[in-house]
Amino acid sequence: MTFDLTGKTALVTGASRGIGRALAVGLAAAGADLVLSARDEALLKEVAGEIESLGRTATVLPADVTDATACGQLVEDALGVSGHLDVLVNNAGGSSYMGPFTDLRFSGWEKVMRLNVDSLVHLCQAAGRHMTARGSGSIINVASVAGLTGTPFLAPYGASKAAVISLTKSLALEWGEHNVRVNALCPGWTKTDLNKTLWGAPDGGATWVANQGLKRWATVDEMVGPTVFLASDASSYVTGQSIVVDGGQTAA
Ligand SMILES: NC(=O)c1ccc[n+]([C@@H]2O[C@H](COP(=O)([O-])OP(=O)(O)OC[C@H]3O[C@@H](n4cnc5c(N)ncnc54)[C@H](OP(=O)(O)O)[C@@H]3O)[C@@H](O)[C@H]2O)c1
């Protein structure tokens, strides 16, 4: 069973809601034990309950990933749980700004970079040191199709996700000889709190998906299969790649 994650420990950031929550539960369903992180401890405990009902263990470690010290501590505490970390899913991220580039304050640019890029630097460094020394590991960075194409009115977000994709390739090349794989997941439009104002509109957000193949928004559960693939031995020869899960958006 190459998709089987039994015996593996996975740390998922942004596991309290949205895509991260679905990924955490999905990895547990594939057999992994989970370490769950985000800022909202109450929501994380809810997710932990769901995972425990699947017969897996779930440890809740609240952290703000924009805090470099907290990122290092998070990985250290996660390692304290089972002594090893097999899978890291860097999912926490987003952007609260959507608007013209000429109106963007530089502090807003820095905020997006801190959340989407700096956090990965700290978490990949801490987890990468452990994984390269141990000689195994799979890191999955949640990027976005916005990092592959131009993203008008979301320029800082697009640039941050392009940085995630580039970092993913560089680390895959640096760490390959240590059997540590690093890949990116690039979701397209997926219904979560992040973009509720778009899919919650009277047309159900139809205009945003009108030009893609499947012509509908993704559910968070549709991100699970590709993530289990990247986490598991089923993808043992896959590294430095961006798996695009976008209903055909980038095929247009
Ligand atoms: N939804 C989409 O259409 C879409 C498309 C492409 C890529 N993505 C990417 O997918 C990832 C998840 O997005 P989502 O749509 O699921 O967003 P979401 O529903 O807003 O969830 C974001 C998650 O990140 C956590 N988080 C936010 N800021 C954090 C911080 N400073 N420290 C720690 N955790 C933090 C949140 O938990 P707390 O609030 O509890 O901290 C929450 O669990 C993001 O990287 C996003 O860029 C989403």
How would you characterize this protein structure?
With 252 residues, the chain is of the alpha/beta class. The protein has a single domain, classed as Rossmann fold (3-Layer(aba) Sandwich), CATH 3.40.50.720. It is built from eight helices and seven strands, in the order E-H-E-H-E-H-E-H-E-H-E-H-H-H-E. The protein has helices at residues 18-29, 41-52, 68-82, 106-134, 155-175, 196-199, 206-209, 224-231; strands at 9-13, 33-37, 58-60, 87-90, 137-142, 180-187, 242-245. It has a seven-stranded parallel sheet, with helices on both faces. Helix 1 packs across helix 8 (224-231). The longest helix has 29 residues, at 106-134. It is globular and about 45 Å long. It starts with 8 loop residues before the first strand and ends in a 7-residue tail after the last strand. NADP nicotinamide-adenine-dinucleotide phosphate (NAP) is lined by residues 13-14, 16-20, 38-40, 43, 64-66, 91-94, 115, 142, 144, 187, 189-190, 192-195.
Q: Which short descriptors sum up this protein?
A:
binds NADP nicotinamide-adenine-dinucleotide phosphate, 252 residues, 7-stranded parallel beta sheet, Rossmann fold
